[in-house]
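> forwarded from #structure-qc
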């Protein structure tokens, strides 16, 4: 009898400790769905809750208009859509082969926002410099493309309410920087199959980047496989793996993601906004050369940029 009383007392004490150790709902990171519980928070507020955004008044579009910075520095393999490496400085001359940079400049000209471009890391080495831009676009950057001052400046910029857009090989960048992995949605590039046609499935047409897109549209890409898999994000578009003639298995053996293979998503992160897409491999996606789905892709990217910089509602 005494032994049973002792066990009951011990069990009750353990339950009290457990109950007081579990964080309340107010203490848990805000999350868009129960399936994301237990995923990393990277030590910041992240997810689809607008309360994770910090509006410190660092941007005044009514006075300054809208401006973005395209950063395309590579410290590893370089995609053909980037063309030859650019010389130092801000807005160096672009060659016709700099297809992606030219396309983004044209997109701004056609839609009323200014675009600067650079591959000079010193142009990103202070928050004050970055706060001139409503969004920073990482366009197929590769490997360790930022030095320590630029990493610090980017983080302070995002914390101050800045916008981030990551396109294609932005996922092959800063592998060893955990904060950047979180900025990508808690995701990273693992491998991909061959460049091939497939069908993109629009998951929500409420977002600025998907409004007006068809439910399904043909495109061609490398269809990145991801490890880790994005979490606490709003998935905007996926690829239907059954439409890939060459399959989705990557060069390192990744089997793909089945019925839930995301290609674009958005989130609030550490005070800022982040919109990312793995799409954009083909040169033709950035030029006037005909390619199935290129108009839909352009509209998708434009909406992502406009929402990340606060010109349109974000992550709907």
């Amino acid at each position: 009898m005494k032994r049973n009383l002792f066990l009951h007392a011990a069990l009750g004490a353990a339950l009290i400790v457990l109950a007081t150790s579990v964080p309340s709902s107010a203490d848990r990171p805000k999350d868009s769905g129960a399936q994301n519980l237990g995923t990393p928070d990277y030590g910041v507020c992240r997810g689809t809750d607008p309360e994770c955004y910090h509006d410190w008044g660092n941007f005044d579009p009514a006075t300054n208009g809208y401006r973005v910075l395209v950063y395309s520095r590579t410290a590893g393999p370089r995609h053909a859509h980037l063309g030859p490496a650019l010389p130092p400085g801000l807005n160096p001359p672009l060659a016709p082969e700099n297809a992606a940079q030219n396309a983004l400049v044209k997109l701004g000209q056609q839609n009323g926002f200014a675009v600067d471009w650079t591959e000079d890391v010193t142009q990103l080495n202070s928050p004050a410099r970055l706060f001139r831009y409503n969004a920073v676009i990482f366009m197929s950057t590769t490997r360790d493309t930022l030095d320590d001052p630029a990493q610090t400046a980017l983080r302070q910029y995002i914390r101050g309410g800045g916008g981030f857009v990551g396109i294609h090989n932005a996922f092959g960048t800063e592998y060893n920087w955990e904060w950047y992995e979180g900025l990508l949605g808690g995701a990273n590039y693992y491998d991909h199959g061959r460049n091939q046609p497939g069908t993109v499935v629009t998951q929500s047409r409420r977002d600025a980047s998907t409004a007006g897109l068809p439910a399904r549209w043909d495109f061609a890409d490398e269809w990145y496989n991801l490890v880790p898999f994005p979490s606490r994000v709003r998935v905007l578009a996926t690829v239907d793996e059954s439409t890939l003639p060459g399959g989705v298995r990557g060069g390192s053996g990744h089997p793909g993601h089945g019925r839930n293979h995301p290609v674009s998503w958005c989130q609030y992160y550490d005070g800022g906004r982040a919109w990312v897409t793995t799409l954009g491999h083909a040169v033709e996606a950035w030029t006037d050369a005909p390619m199935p789905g290129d108009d839909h892709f352009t509209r998708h990217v434009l909406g992502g940029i406009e929402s990340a910089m606060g010109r349109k509602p974000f992550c709907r």
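QC bot note: The helical segments are 2-21, 61-64, 99-111, 127-130, 148-159, 178-183, 294-308. Residues 1-37 have pLDDT under 50 and may be disordered.
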